[in-house]
Design brief:
homodimer, alpha/beta, Isopropylmalate Dehydrogenase, five-stranded mixed sheet, 13 helices
Chain lengths: 334, 334
C-alpha cells in the first residue's frame, strides 16, 4: 500500500509534512510513502529515517498566488504536479495528500486524475464536531459556487457514501441546508434538490437549518459551495469570537484566572472536541477516480498522520467504488 | 411621542410585553404607548399602572401557523393588524413593536405601511456582537431569499444609514459577504453587487469572508437573505454547540465545577457580550415608510424596553429620511 505526499504544500512544509510521513510509516508496517519535493531538503529532515520512504525530486512549489490551471499545466516540476503524476500512473498508490493551494489541488485532481463518470462537480467535504459524540460532514464547503440541483444530489450521494465508509454507519442521515424545514422553503435550487434527494433511496431527513447542523441530528449536510462556505467559515468565526471574548475576560479578572486553572481539563476537552482536523486530517475531494486529500494550510505532523489514517480507512472500505456504483445505478435508472 | 406595541405577539405575551411597556413609560416622561390586544387581559396586567398607556382592543391573535398574507387581510381584529392600522393612521406614532410571527410582521409592514420609493425589498437587519467592543449588523438575514444585485445595493445603503443612526458613526464600514476577498470571487450576484456598492459613495471595504464578520473590522455585513440566514443561524448553532460542550464538561469534572464558580464574572461578561438583543431589542424592518421593529419570539420585558430605546434613537436621528434621501439621490443619478 502506497501513499504519495506533497512535501512542500502548506505553511509548515516541508518539516511538519515529512515528520507526519515518518509518524505514518511507524504506525503502519505495510505502508510505503512517496514524498514529492526538493530531495536535498527532504533528506535533511529525514536524517536517515528513510525506511519505506521514497523521494520524488521536485524543485518547484505551487503557491497560493499561482493561478491553479496555469500552475498545474506549467509547473510540471512542482511537488504537487509530480505527486499527481505518481497518483495517476502508479496503480498501487491509493491516495494523494497535500496541504497546498486548494485551487491547485482541486484543479490537479480534475485535470490529472479525472472525475467519476456521471459526476460533473467533485466536492470538498470537511468534518465538523457536533454537540453530541458524533461528527457531521459538510458537502460542498466551497469548491463549487454556482450549483445546479443535480450537483446537490451528487453531493448527497457522495457525502452519504463517505460518511458510511468513514464511520461504518449504514444509512447516515442526509440533510439539505435550508432556511426553514418545510419542503417548499428556500430557493428554486433547494426545492429542486429536495425532490431529487427525496427520491434517491438515501436516508434523507429533509431540510435542516444552519442552527441545527452541529446538533448531532444530521450526519451529512448538503449545501451549494457558497452557502456551505458561509456556514463553515461563519461558525469558525463565531466560535473564534466567543473564545477570544472568553480569553480576554479571564485575563482581566484575577478570580477568573484562578478559575481557569481549575478548568484545565474542561478547556482541553473542548479543544479536542472542536479540533476535528487532528482526528481526521484533511477533507477528501469527493468525486474523483482516486483519493485526493486536501489538508489545511496550517496543518501539523499529526494532521498528516490523520490524513493517512483516513486514506487507509476509505480505501479499505472502498469509497470510490461505492460512489461509482451509486452514481451508475442512478444514471441507469434515468 | 407615541409608540404602538402588539401586546399579543411572542411566546411571553402578553405579560412580558405589557411589563416592557411599563418600563418604557417609566424611563421616558414624554412617551405615550398604545397597547393592542385583549383589553381585559391587558388591564389585568397593568393593574392600574396605565399612565400614558392607551389600549386598543383587539380580540384576535395572529400565530406562526397563520399564512401571513391571509392573516393580515383576514384577521382585521388581531392585535398586529390593529397596531399596523394605528401606525399608518396616526402621524404622531413613530414606531411599531411586535414579537409576533416574522412573516406576518413583514407582510403587514409592506401591505399596510408601504415601502420607501425605489426600494423593492425591505430587509431585516439584526445586530450581532464582535470580538471587539463594537457590534456588526447583518442585512439581509432571511426576509429576501432570491435577491438581485440592486437589492444587495439597497441593503448596503439601508444598513449603512441604520448603523450610522444607531451608533452615531459617520461612515460605517460596509462589507459584502463572500467566499473570498478578491473582487472577482463568488457568484454572478456578488460580483454585480460588488461593482454597484463600490460606486455608491458608501465606505465600502469590499468582500468579507464569513469568518471575519465578528472580527470587529466590518460594521455592516451585506448578504442575500439565504446566505445571511445561514451565517446568522450557523453562528448561533456553533456558539450553542460550544457552550453545550462546555457545560457538559464542567458538570462531569469536580475541579471544573469549582473553577466555574470562580469564573462567574467571566461567564456573565460573555452572556452580556453575546446577548446583543437585550441591549438593542429587535431588528428594524428597513425600507418601510415608518419604523417597524421585529422582536424575537422569546423576548422579555427588557427586550421590549430596548426596542423602545432603539425606536427613539432611530426616530431622532431621522433614519427613514436618511434612507429616503440616499435612495432618491441614487435614483436621480441613474
Amino acid at each position: 500500500m502506497k501513499i504519495v505526499i506533497d512535501a512542500f504544500g502548506g505553511d509548515n512544509a516541508p518539516k511538519e509534512i515529512v515528520e507526519g510521513a515518518i509518524l505514518a510509516i511507524n504506525k503502519y508496517s505495510n505502508l510505503n510513502i512517496i514524498l514529492c519535493g526538493d530531495e536535498k531538503k527532504i533528506r535533511e529532515i529525514l536524517n536517515g529515517r528513510d525506511e519505506r520512504i521514497e523521494i520524488c525530486h521536485a524543485p518547484l512549489v505551487i503557491s497560493n498566488d499561482d493561478v491553479p490551471t496555469e500552475a498545474i499545466r506549467g509547473k510540471k516540476e512542482s511537488s504537487l504536479v509530480k505527486a499527481f503524476d505518481i497518483l495517476k500512473e502508479r496503480e498501487d498508490v491509493i491516495s494523494l495528500i497535500s496541504a497546498g493551494s486548494t485551487g491547485a489541488i482541486l484543479t490537479g485532481a480534475i485535470m490529472k486524475i479525472g472525475r467519476i463518470k456521471g459526476i460533473s462537480r467533485p466536492a470538498l467535504a470537511p468534518i465538523l464536531p457536533t454537540k453530541k459524540k458524533s461528527d457531521v460532514i459538510l458537502i460542498d464547503s466551497g469548491a463549487n459556487i454556482d450549483c445546479k440541483s443535480i450537483n446537490l444530489y451528487h453531493f448527497a450521494v457522495m457525502g452519504s457514501a463517505y460518511y458510511s465508509a468513514l464511520y461504518n454507519v449504514n444509512k447516515p442521515r442526509v440533510g439539505l441546508l435550508n432556511i426553514g424545514v418545510e419542503e417548499h422553503k428556500g430557493t428554486e435550487l433547494t426545492r429542486e434538490a429536495y425532490s431529487l434527494i427525496k427520491d434517491s433511496g438515501l436516508n434523507f431527513i429533509g431540510n435542516v437549518e444552519a442552527r441545527e447542523y452541529m446538533s448531532g441530528n444530521v450526519d451529512v449536510m448538503v449545501a451549494d459551495g457558497f452557502a456551505g462556505n458561509v456556514l463553515l467559515k461563519g461558525s469558525e468565526g463565531a466560535v473564534g469570537a466567543l473564545l477570544s471574548v472568553l480569553k480576554n475576560s479571564i485575563k482581566s479578572h484575577t478570580m477568573s484566572k484562578i478559575g481557569a486553572l481549575f478548568m484545565r481539563k474542561t478547556f482541553k476537552e473542548i479543544k479536542n472536541r472542536m479540533d476535528v482536523l487532528s482526528r481526521h486530517g484533511g477533507s477528501p475531494f469527493l468525486g474523483c477516480k482516486k483519493l485526493v486529500m486536501k489538508n489545511h494550510g496550517s496543518c501539523k505532523r499529526e494532521n498528516i498522520l490523520a490524513s493517512v489514517d483516513q486514506s487507509i480507512i476509505l480505501y479499505q472500505n472502498k469509497l470510490i467504488e461505492k460512489i461509482e456504483d451509486l452514481i451508475k445505478k442512478q444514471v441507469g435508472e434515468e
